[in-house]
Structures are given as structure tokens and as C-alpha cells.
């Protein structure tokens, strides 16, 4: 996957004559963070994009657009502690988004570990996940990559208000349907390719 954000960041940094360490020092972060941004394994959060733009003398909107540029082979995860619901949902996602790498998890900790090494374009999260919950998982995933599209999936409409207090883009009631997924894909905050022609 090409990472326009990382390539552009590297180019702008070099044009300013800055090493990764020097840019990191200006931002009060470790140079390994700059390296991860440039190699595409991580993206900065919105506040850091604004600070980067200031240090590099560019418009922050340019960097925001690049950070959310279209991903041709997105990583998608679904987290639900009910294996039947998870299997059903994964089948629907695979049918609709054929070009994606789609993984399912019954435990939030596994999803978090996966997200630490894979840039997640879309996460479909159950809200009730045993002892933990999808609302907390949403926050953790967005800390790892603020450009992850989060959609909550639950059997309880009462969770709607709590879900909208997060940075999720959608809220769906179980059972998941193809029509629901297609409708949510039209509302992506950070678009990616669905492989549709």
C-alpha cells in the first residue's frame, strides 16, 4: 500500500532540511514516531497534524486530506463476542468489500494487538463485549489510528446515545445486513476503496 501521507511528510521534512530527530524535537516526540508516520505504519492524530503543518510551513488541510487518502486494500475488523454473529457479519463484509483484508475477533485485546501492526480502515464493533465494551475499544482504536472509521453494531437501540458520544461514524442494529453495510460505506469519514466497479 502506498502511503501518500508518509511520502509527503518525508518530502516536506527534507525540504526544510530537518532530520527525523530534529522534527521530533520540535514536536516534543521521539524520532521513531516520525519514522512510523513516514513508513505508513501509523498516522498522527488531528492535533499532531496541525502541529506538523505549523513546523513544516504548510496548510494543515493538505496534511489532513493526505492522512485520509483512499486506501486501495483496506484492513477491516469486526469485533463481537458472539461467534455466530461474528461469522455472519464477516461473510457480509467479505461479500461487499472484496478487495479488503477482513479479520474477526471475539476478544478486544486481540483486535487492539492487530490494530497496532495493521492500519485499520473500518472497525465494526459490538458494544457489549463480555467484561469490556465497544465504546472503550473505540477510544483505543482511535488512539492507535485516528483515521479509523468506527461503526457500532448492537442488539440494543438504547446504546445509541452512548455511541454518538464517541467519534464513530455509524450505529447499526443486529442482525447486520448487506443493505446496512452499503449504507454505512457511503458515510465514511475516511474513505477507502471497496473494490466495487
Molecular structure report:
- The protein folds into two domains: about 5-65, 434 Repressor (Amino-terminal Domain) (Orthogonal Bundle); about 75-185, Rossmann fold (3-Layer(aba) Sandwich), CATH 3.40.50.
- About 50% of the residues lie in helices and about 15% in strands.
- The longest helix is centred in the middle third of the chain and has 14 residues, at about 85-95.
- Strand 1, helix 6 and strand 2 (about 100-105) form a beta-alpha-beta unit.
- The protein contains ten helices and seven strands.
- It has helices at about 5-15, 20-25, 30-40, 45-55, 60-65, 85-95, 110-115, 135-145, 160-165, 180-185, and strands spanning about 75-80, 100-105, 120-125, 130, 130-135, 150-155, 170-175.
- Strands 2-1-3-6-7 form a five-stranded parallel beta sheet, with helices on both faces.
- It has about 200 residues and is of the alpha/beta class.
- Helix 1 (about 5-15) packs across helix 3, helix 2 (about 20-25) crosses helix 3 (about 30-40) and helix 7 packs parallel to helix 8 (about 135-145).
- The model has no long low-confidence stretch (mean pLDDT about 85).
Amino acid at each position: 500500500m502506498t502511503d501518500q501521507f508518509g511520502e509527503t511528510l518525508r518530502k516536506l521534512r527534507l525540504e526544510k532540511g530537518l532530520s527525523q530527530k530534529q522534527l521530533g524535537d520540535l514536536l516534543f516526540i521521539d524520532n521513531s514516531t516520525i519514522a512510523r508516520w513516514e513508513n505508513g505504519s501509523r498516522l498522527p492524530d488531528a492535533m499532531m497534524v496541525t502541529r506538523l503543518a505549523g513546523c513544516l510551513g504548510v496548510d494543515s488541510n493538505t496534511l489532513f486530506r493526505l492522512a485520509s487518502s483512499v486506501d486501495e486494500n483496506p484492513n477491516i475488523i469486526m469485533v463481537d463476542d458472539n461467534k455466530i454473529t461474528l461469522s455472519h457479519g464477516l461473510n457480509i463484509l467479505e461479500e461487499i468489500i472484496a478487495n479488503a483484508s477482513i479479520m474477526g475477533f471475539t476478544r478486544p485485546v486481540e483486535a487492539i494487538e492487530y490494530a497496532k501492526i495493521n492500519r485499520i480502515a473500518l472497525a465494526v464493533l459490538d458494544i457489549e463485549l463480555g467484561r469490556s465494551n465497544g465504546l472503550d475499544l473505540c477510544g483505543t482504536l482511535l488512539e492507535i489510528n485516528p483515521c479509523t472509521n468506527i461503526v457500532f453494531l448492537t442488539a440494543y437501540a438504547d446504546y445509541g446515545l452512548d455511541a454518538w458520544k464517541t467519534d464513530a461514524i455509524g450505529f447499526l442494529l443486529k442482525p447486520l445486513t448487506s443493505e446496512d453495510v452499503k449504507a454505512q460505506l457511503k458515510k465514511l469519514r475516511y474513505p477507502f476503496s471497496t473494490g466495487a466497479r
